[in-house]
Design a protein that fits this description.
heterodimer, A: alpha/beta, Rossmann fold, 3 domains, seven-stranded antiparallel beta sheet, seven-stranded mixed beta sheet, 16 strands, globular, B: alpha/beta, TIM Barrel
Chain lengths: 269, 305
């Protein structure tokens, strides 16, 4: 659905990374971790298109004004990379944005009793936080493997720890956690009885998907893509399905068929 | 005063208002049902249909540019059979005319797809794409040469009894020549413009942004070009016209009508505002009310030069 949303807070949590909380429609209270929003930052024609953001959190609060019931909010985590996100970072409490919510298919949490393994980096941590929150509410054991180029890419780790998630960190330059790829740390811990949920840069997802397939560990990945509409019409955000070939093409829409896929559904390089 | 009369008749197709959705920007209709009332708009145009399903181009397929976007989707579609089996039954239950957009990889395929659509209930008319800039076959080759356009349009005409709309490319030296060729070959209406060929470059990587290198530019950036072409064609050809190009609001749409369009198609606007087509129809009506104009039809070609 389309919703005029009011910014509640918009805070820089790490250099260039912002966490924004905004009002959301009641319907969003039933959103599934992994689903996303399409946000239009203003009415101007430049930037023209909405931007997709994974849900970082959904909750409710009671506003201070008298006579108001509980109000649903949602949060996103974003990095300032271009004109759209720069404008977004300048918004304050009370500013309005236009949302399409909730979009896409989210994570399937799997049976209780398994160990849930979350792997992500940068803004890829956004949907994993919402997922971790829901999993911990169900009393599951959750571990997070967070990676990035340097410490600035490792976001909101204390938030995960506060939920009771065991965290492992690796950075390319060693400024936080182990030096190297987070997938190397992950490899040492992976075993049977686990289920992987991953979101982050494509090379990371590529490595995680292959590792999980080799070890026979079920793995879901949340993909990112350029998209214009978010509702399955523009066909701009497609990815190759596992059996895609030039002769038998099989493209999947990230917005509608995803953004969360079982890793074996997609073709990995 | 009474509500203004927004209805128009386009090549024999009665529409409640002049706002149509542009091919390739509205899926097969159902994708947008959560966001607008499909029975509030004038007509829906489907994604371009081909004889066989088509995969489309590699990714990245889209990129935003100032005031617009480039796309090189490559006419990905489910194919005519799947359209008839899976998409059309839904559309038949919507009380809004459906225009099937079609293209062929060869001349023969254009005729074949047209004849497959011909007997179908629930298809009010067909729109022939001879103007897609993103595929080598089945599009632009027929849309830039008047003789080739005449050939493909007359073939489709022989294979259909439905109103025939021909969608023109702006990527030509003289759009009027193409319009006349299509009219001579039996088109009942013309829609213009398709996207303008363009490209975007990633300066960091020294590479084109789109995998296809070039793509079609759409959005508000192209509106002045589209208005000019509609106006030129309206003066040269008697057929009803559908104005397309960067229409974002009711005022944009009415400008196209003044230039000579009987109806308009909303494209890129539906991507950023999925209820755009319905909103634009309402904004047009509002303008008519505010200006005490009784019917939308009275504005067609009413530009004073």
């Amino acid at each position: 659905m389309q919703f005029k949303s009011m910014v509640i807070s918009n805070v820089e949590v790490s250099p260039k990374y912002f966490r924004m909380r905004m009002t959301a429609p009641q319907e969003l209270a039933c959103a599934v971790p992994g689903q996303f929003v399409m946000l239009k930052v203003n009415d101007a024609i430049d930037p023209l298109l909405r931007r997709p953001f994974g849900l970082f959190d959904v909750g409710s609060f009671v506003p201070e004004y008298a006579g108001c019931g509980a109000q649903v909010y949602c949060e996103i985590l974003y990095k300032v990379v271009g004109k759209g996100t720069k404008l977004l970072s300048a918004l304050h409490h009370g500013d309005l944005v236009d949302l399409l919510v909730p979009l896409g298919k989210g994570f399937q949490m799997g049976p209780a009793g398994e160990e849930k393994v979350l792997v992500g980096g940068g803004v890829g941590l956004a949907p994993l936080y919402y997922l971790a929150k829901e999993l911990k509410e169900r009393g599951e054991k959750v571990r997070l493997f967070a990676g990035g180029r340097n410490r600035d890419d490792i976001l909101c780790i204390t938030e995960f720890e506060r939920l009771g998630v065991e965290t492992y960190v690796a950075t390319d330059d060693g400024t936080l956690g182990e030096q190297g790829f987070v997938t190397q740390v992950l490899e040492r811990h992976l075993g049977s009885g686990m289920r992987i949920f991953a979101c982050g840069p494509t090379p990371m997802l590529n490595a995680v998907a292959k590792m999980s397939q080799n070890l026979g560990v079920p793995c879901q990945v949340s993909m990112e893509a350029y998209m214009a509409c978010g509702v399955g019409a523009c066909l701009g955000c497609v990815m190759k399905g596992a059996n895609h070939s030039d002769e038998t093409p099989d493209y999947r829409c990230v917005c509608k068929d995803g953004p969360v896929f079982d890793s074996f559904e997609l073709q990995w390089s | 005063m009474q509500r203004p009369d927004m209805s128009v008749v386009l090549a024999g197709i009665p529409m409640r208002n002049p706002v149509m959705t542009a091919s390739g920007t509205f899926g097969y209709g159902a994708e947008f049902a959560d966001y607008l009332d499909l029975e509030s708009i004038g007509a829906m145009v489907t994604k371009g249909l081909s004889l066989k399903p088509k995969a489309g181009n590699p990714t990245p397929r889209i990129v935003e540019t100032p005031g617009g976007m480039l796309n090189a989707i490559g006419l990905q579609n489910v194919g005519i059979d799947a359209f008839i089996e899976q998409k059309l039954p839904y559309l038949k239950n919507v009380n809004t005319p459906v225009i099937a957009n079609l293209y062929g990889n060869t001349l023969e395929e254009y005729g074949e797809v047209a004849s497959r659509l011909d007997g179908l209930a629930g298809v009010a008319g067909i729109e022939v794409n001879i103007s897609c800039p993103n595929v080598k076959q089945g599009g632009i080759v027929f849309g830039t040469d008047p003789a080739a356009a005449r050939e493909v349009v007359s073939l489709v005409k022989r294979n259909t009894s439905k109103p025939l709309i021909v969608k023109l490319s702006p990527n030509v030296t003289d759009v009027v020549l193409m319009a006349k060729a299509s009219a001579d070959a039996g088109a009942d209406a013309l829609s213009l413009i398709n996207t303008l060929t363009g490209m975007a470059i990633d300066l960091e990587r020294h590479r084109p942004v789109l995998a296809n290198v070039t793509g079609g530019l759409s959005g508000p950036a192209i509106k002045p070009v589209a208005l000019r072409m509609v106006w030129q064609v309206a003066r040269a050809v008697k057929l009803p016209l559908i104005g397309i190009g960067g229409i974002m609001n009711g005022r944009d749409a009415l400008e196209f009508m003044l230039a000579g369009a009987t109806a308009v198609q909303v494209g890129t606007a539906s991507f950023l505002d999925p209820s755009a087509a319905q909103r634009i129809a309402q904004e047009m009506e509002q303008y008519l009310v505010e200006h005490n104009i009784e019917s939308a039809r009275s504005l067609i070609g009413a530009l004073e030069v």
